[in-house]
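Dock KE4; give full complex structure.
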Amino acid sequence: MEQKSVELFDRAKKVLPGGVNSPVRAYRAVGITPRFITRADGAYIWDADGQKYIDYVCSWGPMILGHNNPIIREAVEKAIMDGLSYGAPTEREVDIAELMIQMVPNIEMVRMVNSGTEAVMSALRLARGVTGRDKIIKFEGCYHGHSDSMLVKAGSSAMAGGCPNSAGVPVGTAKDTLTAQYNDLVSVQQLFDENPNQVACVIVEAVAANMGVVGPQPGFLEGLRTICDKEGALLIFDEVITGFRLAKGGAQEYFGVRADITTFGKIIGGGMPVGAYCGSRELMEHIAPCGSVYQAGTLAGNPVAMAAGLAQLNYLNTHPEVYTDITDKATRMAADMRKAAEEAGAGVQINQVGSLVAPFFTSDSVESFSGANRSDLKKYAAYFGKMLERGIYLAPAQFEAMFISHAHSEEDLARTLIAVKEVFTELYQ
Ligand code: KE4
């Protein structure tokens, strides 16, 4: 029952590449017609045919409090009355920067941009500008948005779509992006040894959530800190997903490891387009207009987007129970899914860190990109389709995460688990 989505997708493909404005939404990894969504509320979304789903994509992370949260909606409605955009400084930009600095350890200054991609692109330019070095180290299967330097062995839908190394990235750019293996410190040190005094930074997802979900092994993040200090390189935590999700202070608080530059997106916009990169005053004052690293943006710090982000961050800052709630629900969900897999004789690994969960259709544990890559992508596609039929809306690709929000009720989780049990049984018996 997706007639309206089929019609809309046919129209969309005539005017939008692949019928979408972001590749993962085209459902190519799962081979069915993408559902066109018309509205969302709390833990639920509705498609153009009126079908209601329990939503575990949550707009890929921003909707940590659920959709259409009245506090955020009212803040936006109020802000809109004062106009949409000025291209001038506003008090609200100062308010949200002060709040972020209060919530996140180890940052003294914030620069707002319009997306996670822009935050990462700018953070890399800052690292290169400060160190005078050109090379960067990323991890295979990690995704940091679509700036040229990051589209080398990228994860998420770059990998799912079969183009982890995008066309159009100049060889001259790609050669400066070195790739290591996640959870493998030896592979990192080796790159530094092969490129002495040339590496500006290491950029890492503190929890890899674009290869499915793969957490850092004990000592991995600490080891990156040590290597960067020894080699004179900067450590960038890309917290576009983990920021304000793993804890109020994100991964730096959750794992107790200090990054030199931290990038944010998603949650800090409350559903509106916002990204940010943050660091010490000493580092950040290298950015124009104080310093020689240039970055700018017409809609950076947009007053309506700031209102949405400020409302969401204020709520998270004053309601720490959100973090215990979403982590507890995800922990129970993962344990119940593991039990369901066992009972169905299904070779499925369930990884979970904080409120991030991901199933991998393999009998082997998944603690690295190569492990994630061994999972059965066809099984994931079948799992996705069967869960969608049961009114459960998951990431339409294996190399993504399941996001648990504060809006998911016990009844939602119970309904989801019933569907998981049925689908695992169907897939494996
Ligand atoms: P955006 O430019 O999409 O706002 O952020 C890029 C980005 C940067 N860093 C990390 C760790 C990210 O996960 C992302 C974007 N995440 C994907 C989901 N895996 C966005 C969904 C999409 O591409 O449509």
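Observed: DSSP finds 15 helices and 14 strands in the chain.
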